[in-house]
Each structure stands twice: as structure tokens, then as C-alpha cells.
Amino acid sequence: MTDKLDKGTDGARPAAAVSKDDGPASAAPAVIKAIPVRHYGRYVSAVVVLALVGLLINAFATAEKIQWQAVGDYVFDSTVLAGAGRTLLISVLAMVMGVVLGVVLAVMRLSKNPVTSWVAWVYIWFFRGTPVYVQLLLWFNLALIFPMLNLGPLYKDEMVDVMTPFMAALLGLGLNEAAYMAEICRAGLQSVDDGQTEAAHALGMSHGKTLRRIVIPQAMRVIVPPTGNEFLNMLKTSSLVYAVTYNELLRATSTIGSTSYAVMEMLFVACIWYLVITSVFSVGQYYLERRFARGSSRNLPATPWQKIKVNMMAFSRERSSTV
Question: Subcellular localization, per the record (predicted)?
Fold first, then answer.
């Protein structure tokens, strides 16, 4: 019997064959007690960071020259709220201008026409290579070069009346944003496989219809995330229009600070409103990205509201089972 068991593959004895000489059956393995590695450096660094943060908070909280009551008094001041509304308005309008013009420039850049491609490249090169602050000042002082805006029979007026602070802010922010959006849109359009365009042309679709119905919807998955970041950046960059005397949030708070001698307090108020506006739009960007990611990912992570709903359902089931 033992000889038959010894004749396994390659002469090896099967593991299941146990002779009488092998002793008793294998005993249960001993319980292994896993001792986690202690990371003392993490504890030390956490204590140091918390201590520094505590010292920083305590320094601002106990500063005698900061009137924290003034911060609370002016957060919902009508002048501050009007400035926040103008900041939101100029940011949205400039972003819309940047997105529309950016799509046009991206299509021009990808065009086989060398003239349109070259013009788009020069535009992007200039507006990306010069600071936004300088561009705002150029638009605001355009009347020094062109005292009159003469469009023939269509429109004629003095440049000072045309180039208002609002118009200078809109052109300065919108045209600069268009250069960055052009590169974002170009990357998104190039991310779509060429086979999609060839298939659409084989079905008889024109180039424009293929772009609108096939290419751009698929490119939105790549375009939307950086566009959201650009809009959040636009909300903060809009503070530069202070230079062209547009009465947005920073200028409104600075005006109050100069008259009430609460300069730092009003800067804190401006920071609070910038954080509130950017946080609200960050939530919107999160859900917008999820919507355009549906076609590329089947298993999207649950949203915070979905997690709360699942936890509540699990709690109700557990409670009903115990009853």
C-alpha cells in the first residue's frame, strides 16, 4: 500500500498520503499575535503641527489691535454684499467669454488652414505671456492711444465713455482666460479618438455637426475638471480689477477699511466671502464632473448624500431587526 502511494508524479510522494510513521495528524496552527509597528515620528509630527496651528490661532485671537467685532459687523454689510455680487458677476461673464472664445481658438488652432492656426497661436502666445494686471491697465488706458472709438456708421463715441471700469475688467479677464481655455479645449478635442470623426463622416455628417454632436460631448469629460479650476481661479483673480477702479469685493472692503480704520478686519471679511463663494462652486464642480464621467466609469464613488442615505437605511434595518 505504501509503495502505491509513493508512485506520484515525478516520483514525488503526494501530500495527502500520510504513513503510520508520520506521527499524529497535523495540529492546529498556533495563533499569531500581530504587533503593529509603532510610528513614533507620526505622533511627534502631529503634535508639532497641532502646536504650531494652536499658536497661530492664539496669536490672532489674542491680538489687541484686531477688532474681531468689526469683522462680524461688516460681513453682511450692504456695501460688502454688493461688492461680492459684482465679483460674482464679472467672474461669470469673463468665464463665459473665455469659454466661448477658447472653443473658437481651439478649433482655429487645430484647423488645417495655416492662417487661422497661426492667428490662434499668436493670440495664445501673447495673452499667456503677459500678466493679467498689465492687460487690465492696457485696456483701462486705451483712451491715451485712441481718444475716439470710430466704427464708421455703426458706432462712434469717446473711448473714455466706452472703456468703463466694468468693460476694462471684462475684456482684461475674459480675453486672458480665453487663451488658457483654448489650450484646455484643444487638449479635450484631441483626447477624442479620430475613429469617432471618421465614423461620423462615413454616416454623412458635416464637419460642424460632427464637432457639435460627436466630438465636443465626448471631450467635455476632459474639459470640465480644468474648467472648474479655472473658474475658481477667476473668482480670486477678479480682485485684480481693483486696479481699474471697478467696485468689486476687494475694493468695497478696502474702501470701508480706509474710512473706519479697520484695514485688517475688512481684509478678513474679504477672505471670508472669497472662501464662501469658492466653496459653493467647488461643490457644484464636484457634481458636474460626476455627470460627465458617467460614460467613462461605471463605478463612481458614492456622494456624501448617498453615503448618509446608505447609513440611515442600514441603521433602520438594524433597528427593525432588534425590535
Answer: Cell membrane
